[in-house]
Every structure is written in C-alpha cells, then in structure tokens.
Amino acid sequence: MAMAEPAQRKEYIIIESGDMEQPFSWSAGSYGSKFLTEIRDKAKIWGIKCPECGKVYVPLRRVCGPCYVEMTELVPVSNEGSVVTFSVVSFGFVDPSTGQQKPVPYGYAAIHLDGADSYLLHFIDETDPAKIKAGDRVKAIFEEPGKRIGSLLDIKYFELQR
Amino acid sequence: MMAASRVGIVGVGMTKQRSSRRDVTGVELINEAVRAALADAGIKRKDIDAIVIGNMDHFEGINYVDTWSVDGSGALGKPIMKMTTGGTTGSTVAMGAYYHVASGMFDRVLAIGWEKNSESDTTGAIITAFDPFWDRPTFAGAVAGLALEATLYMSETGATEEDAAYIAVRDRRHALNNPFAHLKMDAKIEDIMATPYLSWPIKLGDMCPRTDGACAVVFASDRVAADFPNDPAWVHGVADRHLWAYTSDPYVNQKVKGGTWFPAMERATAELYGKVGVTDPLEEFDVAELYLPYSFAGLRYMESLGFCERGGGPALVRSGATDMGGKCPVNPSGGVMSSNAIGATGLLRVAEAALQVQRRAGDRQVPGASLALATGFGGCYWSDEIILGRELPDKVRG
Asked: Would you say the ipTM is above 0.95?
C-alpha cells in the first residue's frame, strides 16, 4: 500500500538585500554645523530665535514655520531642563543609522531645556516608569571630549536630578 | 474652463490583509486590488482616465513605484501621480483622486494604496523617514513616539491603560465580522493588559500589526456616476493639516493646560465640519472609520474630532457608543488595530466608509448608515479627514 504523499509545501523565493550599502552624506548646513561643533568642542547647547514671535527653537531650524521668516540669531540655552513626557523603550529594534540592536530598555523623554520653547527627544537614565514624572528636572551628560564627533549623540543622555 | 464636478466612489477592491504575502510581488498585490475594484465598478482598465498611487517607498526599498507597477496598476499609457505622505499616504491618495475628479478634468480616477510591510523592518524604515541630524539619533519609530503621547494623555486626563485596552478589544472584535481583516480576536481587557510592554505605557496588545495588503477605489464624477452598478458614496468634503517638522514638535502644543490637544486634527476637523455643516458628530455620523494606529488614539482622537470634550474619551467609549450597535460605531472593519499595510491603511478607511454608506458592508454593515467619517493619521501627527454620504451634496467642496 502506497504511503500518502505529504502535502506539497509551496516554495517562495526571497532575495535578501544582504550587506548592500547605500551610504549618504548629509549636510548639516552652516547653522546646524555651528550647533553640532559647539556641542562637540564646548559641550554647549544653542537655540535659534525667531525675530517675529521670539520663540527659541532647539534643535535648530532656519525658518520659523508659523511666522515664515528666516531666523539668524543664535542664543544660548541651558544644559538643564525638565521632562515634558516620557516612555521606557523595551522592544528590541535595529537602529538603521548603525545597523546595531539598540540596547533596551532605556528611558526616553521629550525634554524642555531652560531657555528654549521647543523640545528635544533624548534618552534619560531611568527605566522604571514609576520613578519618572512630567516636570522632573534633568541635566545633559556629555560624552568625554575626545569621543565627541559633532552629533546629537554627543549628549549621551539626560540625568534625572533627584 | 471645465466645471467642477461632485465626486462619488463607485467601486472598491481590497486584498485580504495578511501578515505576509510571500506568494505575490508588490505589483501582483496591487493588481489583485485593482482587478477587484474594476470588477466591483463594472468597468475595464480602458475606462480609467487617470491613476493616483501611493505607498511608503522605504518599506520595500523600491523608489520608483509609479513606473515599476504600471502593469499591475493599469496605469500603462495613462496619467499617473504618486503621492507619499507617511501614514496618511492612503487617505492622501483618496484626496488626490478626489481632487482629480472634482477639478472637472477627469471623470473616472483610480486610487491605489498598498504596502508589503513583511519586506523590511518596519521600525527601521519609519526611523529613516525622519531627519538624520535631529530625529534619527534618538528616535525609536512609531511605537516610542506614540508612547510619549499616551503618557502625556494619561497624566493630563487620568485615563488608564485599561481604558486604552478597551479600544484594542473593540476594534479586533469588530474585525471578526470582516473577512478581509488581519488580526481578529475576541479578547478581553485583561488579555490586552497581560501582553508585554513595548514602550511603556504601550503594550504589544495596544499596537497595530504590520500587514501586507492593497486597496483600490474608483472615484467618478457626477456626469458619469449613474453609469455604474453601485449607488455612489458621495464625497461631501475633505480637509487636511500637516503641521510639524521634527518628531519632538507635536508635544509643544500639548503641554500647556488648556492648550491645543492635537492641533492638526482639530484644525482639519473645524474646517471640514464647517464646510459640510456638521455640528454634533456623535449624533450626525452614523459610522466612523478612523486611523487609530494604537489603542490610546481611540480615546484621545475622539476628543480632537469633537465627539466629546477633552478628557471625555474614556467615558464615551466605555458607554458603548462606539461599539457595533452604538450611536456611532467606530471601525466596524476592525480598523488599523486589526490591519495595517501602511500605504493601504488610509485608503481602506475611505473604502470601508464608502461600503457603509452604500450599505454593502456585509456582516460589518451599520444598519441604515448614511453619513460616514474617514480619517488618516501619520507623520508628525498629520491628519486627513473625509466625509462620505449617501446623498448627493448640493455643491463641490474643497
């Protein structure tokens, strides 16, 4: 007696893009470069001020969207600020900028730097959501001077001030 | 000069929404939806005057989708326009097709939205949609971005994770009635609460799936609408707002007590309801197909869409008003919480709203539906909104 043939499983071919690289070289522009070199060389954070509404933006941009005017006045903002809202990221994912798994869990927050009117999304040094609340004070912790490359990640994280 | 046309949806086609469609290429997936839409409208490819197509290129890594897909889309030798606006892509495609026909320059326009999210890492692809200097270094994609909104919403209103879980339960229960839906389950709030955190306070059960799927919709002018077998679902009005540059921008307006909640949605809503004459959405809409990418959106966006006061989302949904059988059922299809092939998702909301007012939605039909709201959500809290009705509108509205 013939054995019943197992149901044929269809084979679908998949092509992996593999180690293919498509590198880009983005320009930060003159103002963005100023912001990033100041972080790299002096551990100092700058904002840019709208001549019409007076709003100070961090990170920098060249046009105030609502006023639609060019901004040229750089103003210093504080390395300290407060948490506006937060999360604790615990799902694993590959950071497309590095190709590496992001180390989880980590604290993540919208930070209102003193002297700025916009917010910065960055890491915070707490992974228990019960120990974080809106309004908590934070302070920027920078990479060691020799390790800074002119990136938003020259700020390693924001430290909760307890 | 050609006169502006009133516009109706006369045909709808969709693929089954599945976690992975390894049996088809993107072009073949598009073709499945297009063939279904043409058959539903009772027309052939030759009858289509122009095509609007959209997806998010970086999910498939194919940057020239409009030309690459002409065989499948039916666009060979026809005017075609690609529209890509992030999560709102599908609803923007619908609005683009609407504008084509409303202009009076085309009578029959095909809108196509599609995605094969199985072909790449969704979070990685979403991150690369954002600025390489100011967003990408610290951004963790949609899940973590939405988590910041959820935290803020809970702290400002006292809403709970259980309130949000109600939405996840509702939409996936509704999906049981939809043969095209991807995630269907008769879960309980405690089942959602028991799923692991992805990005506190968002749990696995709070988040939309990643899906492969396509949708196609035929838009027709009032000059030719009577030629089709289905009664049209008439477009009564559209509005959209895209307000922010960087991923950190949306929280600026939300922080201040009494400040705006979700300005893009609130401004689009004010414009649209003003144009169409909607004053009490809960009473006037019979059904809503809303782009709710995660559970908390089903609370908070009801407030920005004017269905209740700020902070009133949990009480509204827990009253049952948005369940099937309620005053205004939300997402009879199962919505985005059940199926999220991103470029198709916004167009599916429009397609489902059309089926409702045409009274062709099968087991997911809201009895007697005459006026429906469809929305798209994406980018840095962008908002597209469309109202469809059974009755021919008195005039063309932008």
From this structure: no
- For residue B128, give the nearest of A59, A89, A96 by CB distance: A96
The predicted model gives A69-79 an average pLDDT of 97
Q: Does B143 touch chain A (CB under 8 A)?
A: yes
Contact yes or no for A144/A124 (Cβ under 8 A) = no
Angle in degrees, CA B298, B303, B305, rounded to 5: 90
Length of chain B: 398
Task: Tally C-beta pairs within 8 A across A and B.
Answer: 124
Q: Is B394 on the interface with A (CB under 8 A)?
A: no
Single pTM value for the model? 0.96
Q: Average pLDDT, stretch A37-66?
A: 95
Q: Are B380 and B246 within 8 A, CB to CB? A: yes
Locate the chain A residue with the closest alpha carbon to B136. A97
**Is A96 within 8 Å of A117 (Cβ atoms)?**
no
B118 in A contact zone (CB under 8 Å): no
**Minimal CA separation from A151 to chain B, in Å:** 7
Kindly report, residue by residue over B2-59, the tens digit of the pLDDT.
Answer: 789 999 999 999 999 999 999 999 999 999 999 999 999 999 999 999 999 999 999 9
Q: Cα separation of B57 and B63, whole Å? A: 5
